[in-house]
Amino acid sequence: MDPELLRQRAAFQKHAARTVSVQQRSQIQLPFPSASHTTYNAEAAKKKKKPVVQQNSKPPEFDFKTTVSHSNAANFGTMAKIVDYMKKRHLSQQQWPLSLQEILDELQVYDLPKRSEAWLREALPKNPRLTCDEELKFCYKPPYKIKGKTSLVAVAKKHHQDVRGGILLSELNDCIPNGEKVLEALSDQIIVVPTQVNKRKDKVFFYNDQELDIFIED
């Protein structure tokens, strides 16, 4: 081969080798600085708030009046529940007496405080809607001794003779069930008049004294 061509070929290969070496170096990337290497900021450290130590607050004071008021309200609520239950027993002809413990058992009241139970033992005998016998057993006491048609007419007649006015239907319903139907069956002996008591609609009935009837000729 021509010596000149050989020389040019050698020069070309040498130049190509240098070019490849430079390109490989340019592809090498320097490592990025670590994010963990941060500069200490003294001013920011000074601005950090010191933990606030809270003083122990005083426990709330015991309010005796409020506690007594809530206790009395609960006691009266329990007594009202007992009276209402005894009334339902009376109207369903379950009129045998029960002790306080028997009443509480039937009402499924098992968590009554001892103080409330003692209060009920003292208050229930004084309730006008209950009777209490020598064994401290209770029965419901209706406002009138009315058990049916005959006793209803007798009580209404007694009211008329004593000039005591009429008897409310709401009171009759505390004595017997279905009081209004009983009055309808006694329409020839009883006079019923609509009325209103404490903004509630009611009815009042009177004995029909036929001796006071006035005959008017046409």
UniProtKB/TrEMBL annotation:
Superkingdom classification of source: Eukaryota
Gene Ontology biological-process entries: transcription initiation at RNA polymerase II promoter
Gene Ontology molecular function: DNA binding; TFIIH-class transcription factor complex binding
Species whose genome carries this gene: Teladorsagia circumcincta
InterPro entries per UniProt: TFA2_Winged_2, TFIIE-bsu, TFIIE_bsu_DNA-bd, WH-like_DNA-bd_sf, WH_DNA-bd_sf
Ranges of residues in domain TFIIE beta: 64-147
Gene3D superfamilies referenced in this protein's UniProt entry, alphabetically: Winged helix-like DNA-binding domain superfamily/Winged helix DNA-binding domain
Protein's recorded name: TFIIE beta subunit core domain protein
GO CC annotation terms, alphabetical: transcription factor TFIIE complex
Primary site of residence: nucleus
Compartments, record wording: Nucleus
Keyword terms, alphabetized: DNA-binding, Nucleus, Transcription, Transcription regulation
Function: Recruits TFIIH to the initiation complex and stimulates the RNA polymerase II C-terminal domain kinase and DNA-dependent ATPase activities of TFIIH. Both TFIIH and TFIIE are required for promoter clearance by RNA polymerase.
Pfam family name, one: TFIIE_beta
Transmembrane among keywords: no
